[in-house]
Amino acid sequence: MCYVPDMGNVTSIYIFPAFVFAKCCIAASKLPHYGSYMAEMTQERLSSEIEARRDQLIALTQDLIRIPTLNPPGLNYREICAFLAERLAKSGFSVEMVRAEGAPADSAKHPRWNLIARHEGANPGECVHFNSHHDVVEVGHGWTVDPFGGEVKDGRVYGRGACDMKGGLAASIIAAEAFIAACPDYRGAIEISATADEESGGYGGVAYLAEKGYFSPDRVQHVIIPEPLNKDRICLGHRGVWWAEIETKGRIAHGSMPFLGDCAVRHMGAVLEEMEATLFPLLATKRTAMPVVPEGAKQSTMNINAIHGGEPEQDPDYTGLPAPCVPDRCRITLDRRFLIEEDIAEVKAEVTALMERVKAQRPSFDYEIRDLFEVQPTMTDQDAPVVRTVTQAIQQVLDTVPEYVVSPGTYDQKHIDRIGRLKNCIAYGPGILDLAHQPDEWVGIDDMVDSAKVMALTLAALLSP
Ligand SMILES: [Zn+2]
């Protein structure tokens, strides 16, 4: 339901409901002193508050899945933000909807809306922020359930975005509501954001908000991103990315007399051969100390995303018939993932050096390298307060020592680190990473409940009065 009838050009909306604290706070507890009677009591109380909300957690996840926030093109962003705003306002949060006006892909047809909700404790203190992206990737083929039905079956909720990451978003909301109910006189603040476009780089979402100061260290001190990294793992960061396009240049001529032209596709063949002979073996020797999962991503990697030479297939007049021409252009797109130990300038220099080696062997060879996109690697220190606190909470709730991991691909932590300058940030949430973007995506209900308990206990540890 949309509670704002018409937003027109308004880019920011504030709602300040009265705070209503339904229950009394439990006695002050200091969670870091584990084993104490008070800590146990806190855990039990939070646990039962969350168990009591199990049905709400399922229903909220279903409601979120039923708003198809497909990206591209960026559908229903305003609807999902308005839905969450209404929900969180009822729980005592002040809510703000922010449109990333002017950000890449923001348009009148597909505006990039974000929601930021904040709940103030009884006394000043630190702010814990849960950031989830609300967009989901395309449906794809192979589904046996309705991708936007939110079907519940065998202890799982199914749908596009169930695992990545509407289940995590729902878990963080339930965790915050349960904690506030158990401990209304907490100190500090809790923020929950639902942001746009993570799946396409986060420029209309976290990057925009970070530039506006929403993730500045004087406003927010701890950030948890409930991406689906499994409930017993803490993700400290991600590798870097460099996307680039390489074009080889030739000269057009009649295809029956190729000796009169210069074939750009053959030049590209020489480039690919040189990559196989020297670059891929070099990348395999570059290993990282980052705990990247899976194992194969513990080294530098490179994917060749696309290759095209000859007639442009995107041309609306393209017939598919062969052209009697020597191709004068050939392009490939590179997706190079690099390690925290590498410098991006060195990553680019390796490719330039390779192109120069090819050039030295081919008299007429010429080329161009164009940067498309880059992301620096990021990794939060294992001693950071949010890492230590979530570690203890996982040990308490799941009775296991969490695994520290680093993601092979990137997520919004890059913007929080680079633009927001906030280092105390991790990804922690329910859901199995491998299920993200797959057909029949699901999130386990018990996993959501368990990770909500971990999140609530984290709040108790960081914000106890
Ligand atoms: Zn995600």
Provide a compact summary of the structure:
With 465 residues, the protein is of the alpha+beta class. The chain has helices at 37-51, 54-65, 77-90, 162-182, 206-211, 264-285, 344-361, 385-398, 413-418, 445-463; strands at 12-15, 94-99, 113-120, 123-133, 152-153, 156-158, 187-195, 222-225, 233-238, 240-249, 301-309, 329-338, 366-375, 378-379, 403-407, 425-427, 442-444.
Task: Describe the fold and architecture.
The protein is of the alpha+beta class and 465 residues long. It has two domains: 12-238 and 378-463, 3-Layer(aba) Sandwich (Aminopeptidase), CATH 3.40.630.10; 240-312 and 322-375, Alpha-Beta Plaits, CATH 3.30.70.360. The protein has helices spanning 37-51, 54-65, 77-90, 162-182, 206-211, 264-285, 344-361, 385-398, 413-418, 445-463; strands at residues 12-15, 94-99, 113-120, 123-133, 152-153, 156-158, 187-195, 222-225, 233-238, 240-249, 301-309, 329-338, 366-375, 378-379, 403-407, 425-427, 442-444. The protein has a seven-stranded mixed β-sheet. The chain has a four-stranded antiparallel β-sheet with strand order 11-12-10-13, with helices on one face. It has a three-stranded antiparallel β-sheet with strand order 5-6-17. 46% of the residues are buried. The chain binds zinc ion. Zinc ion is lined by residues 133, 164-165, 198, 227, 411. Residues 133, 164-165, 198, 227, 411 line the site of zinc ion (ZN).
